[in-house]
Write a structure and sequence with these properties.
Elements: E1 3-12, H1 13-21, E2 30-36, E3 41-47, E4 59-68, H2 82-85, E5 89-91, E6 94-102, H3 105-108, H4 116-130, H5 135-145, E7 148-156, E8 159-164, E9 173-176, E10 181-184, H6 188-192, E11 197-200, E12 205-209, E13 215-219, E14 228-229, H7 230-236, E15 242-243, E16 246-247, H8 248-266, E17 273-276, H9 282-292, E18 300-302, H10 315-325, E19 326-328, E20 337-342, H11 349-360, E21 365-370, H12 392-395, H13 398-405, E22 409-412, H14 415-422, E23 427-428, H15 430-433, H16 439-449
Parallel strand pairs: 14-23, 17-20, 20-21, 21-22
Antiparallel strand pairs: 1-4, 1-10, 2-3, 2-4, 5-6, 6-7, 7-8, 8-12, 9-10, 9-11, 12-13, 15-16, 18-19
The structure holds iron/sulfur cluster.
């Protein structure tokens, strides 16, 4: 997952950096801005969040922005690497940034790309050169050769363009005002810029935006069914974002209601409090508390000056960070039955730490509820759960997971509850059921069945031809 931004119409660079900050939760490995001047593109890139970008109070007619989460290539380790690792990238007269993951990158090139956005940019430039600079033709050729998830924003010939892969895995929305067109991963960026959300870019659609709100739409590639990433609703996106006409907050609220049903059926001793694990699960915890008629209490507080645990890459750094991540209200815990609500259990280590911390502080019982079903398969489309060995649910059943985290009960969402809460049928559930919707991902999955013992690389970076 990454965040992407495109602006057409005279805009201040320092103000565009503020807009990019609204996408910092989607990736904080590195960030970049690229803008058009009269004669060339210029750029500023930084390690970490967009707050480190060095831009003046200058103006540009066309700007691209990117927050990077490294699902291809490794993490940025020094400033010298920024130009190869973080978008936006330029190749000839085209510049692009993208969110997603190209699953067949290692099968397509011998070159050691540290970022698949750079690969997309180079291929697009290649196809433009071969198609008389005709962008729709270049996209038809690009989509026929790459597999995976890719929501792209770019600049070509003074225009801004947006493209979403034919399954629409990753979100991409746009809006236009009299002065500006803005394309972004999340609609909150448009809200902040006072540009009204117009709609999602349709899966398989290329839109080329020109001056004066002109826009041309091309249907580049279509699939029978779309596959929107359900995890955007459960975890990634800001609750204020609208994706596919669904307010993320509402989806999370409905997930909580569905969980309440499941909890009631277990006929456990009544909890004294429902407790959200901040911040993502708060709407679900609120709904669950309302349904059960139990008060919600914010007993677990987040240390705001640490980033998201998920974004930290090494297990050691993640564990150390998790330890400092939460602060507890001891007085509300002692002797109480607590129903904790979290958005997911990935490795199980954070859930285990929370249960242990609550019990250490005198909780009588700790029930653990999860707003999404068990994740037992890796994601090849843009989040870095790239091998199944990282997922506790791929190795252990419900009772074993409950035992591992030390909870008195473990309540997962079921598939129907999840699908109904999202309000859309065309969603990707591959990390839950292993049904990967793209051809190359299916090949990766088949190869893993015959898994070699080679450890330490992402499944989709294995050589599969
Ligand atoms: S596999 Fe899971 S995380 Fe990846 S795109 Fe599909 S739903 Fe999203």
């Amino acid at each position: 997952m990454c965040g992407v931004l495109g602006i057409l119409g005279r805009y201040r660079l320092d103000a565009s950096k503020e807009l990019l900050l609204l996408l910092a939760h989607r990736g904080q490995d590195a960030s970049g801005l690229l803008w058009a001047t009269e004669s060339a593109f210029q750029e500023s890139k930084t390690m970490g969040s967009p707050s480190g970008l060095s831009v003046q109070r200058e103006w540009s007619e066309c700007i691209l922005g990117s927050t990077r989460y490294p699902t291809s290539g490794r993490r940025v380790s020094s400033e010298d690497e920024l130009c190869d690792f973080v978008g936006p990238f330029q190749s000839g007269a085209v510049a692009v940034t993208h969110n997603g993951n190209i699953t067949n990158l290692s099968s397509m090139t011998e070159k050691d790309y540290q970022c698949d956005t750079k690969f997309i940019c180079d291929r697009l430039q290649h196809h433009l050169a071969e198609s008389d600079d005709h962008l729709p033709t270049a996209f038809v050729r690009l989509t026929s050769e790459v597999d995976g998830a890719y929501s792209i924003v770019g600049i070509h010939d003074g225009s801004l363009f947006a493209f979403r892969d034919s399954r629409g895995f990753k979100p991409l929305v746009f809006g236009r005002s009299a002065e500006h067109t803005i394309v972004a991963s999340e609609s909150t960026v448009l809200d902040m810029a006072h540009v009204k959300l117009e709609r999602d870019v349709y899966p398989g659609e290329l839109i080329v935006f020109g001056p004066n709100q002109a826009m041309q739409c091309y249907s580049i590639s279509q699939q029978d069914g779309h596959k929107h990433c359900f995890f955007e609703y459960v975890y990634f996106a800001n609750p204020a974002a609208r994706i596919e006409n669904q307010l993320v907050y509402d989806v999370r609220f409905r997930l909580g209601r569905a969980l309440a049903n499941r909890f009631t059926r277990l006929q456990l001793e009544e909890p004294d409090y429902v407790i959200p694990v901040p911040d993502t699960s708060r709407p679900a915890a609120q709904a669950l508390a309302e349904e059960l008629g139990v008060p919600m209490r914010e007993v677990i507080l987040k240390n705001r000056y640490l980033g998201r645990t998920f974004i930290v890459q090494s297990p050691e750094a993640r564990n150390a960070m998790a330890h400092y991540k939460y602060i507890y209200l001891d007085d509300k815990i002692r002797g109480k039955n607590l129903l904790v609500v979290d958005d997911s259990i990935v490795r199980g280590t954070t859930a285990k730490m929370i249960v242990k911390d609550l019990k250490k502080r005198g909780a009588a019982k700790v029930y653990f509820a999860v707003t999404c079903p068990p994740q037992s398969h890796p994601c090849y489309y843009g989040i870095d759960i790239s091998t199944s060995s990282e997922l506790i649910a791929s190795q252990a059943g419900l009772e074993q997971i409950r035992d591992f985290i030390g909870a008195d009960a473990l309540i997962y969402q079921d598939m129907d509850g999840l699908v109904n809460a999202t309000g859309i049928r065309d969603i990707c559930l591959a990390c839950l059921d292993g049904n990967y919707p793209t051809e190359h991902a299916k090949k990766i999955q088949a190869a893993i069945q015959l898994r070699d013992k080679k450890q330490g690389i992402r499944d989709y970076e294995r050589e599969i031809r």
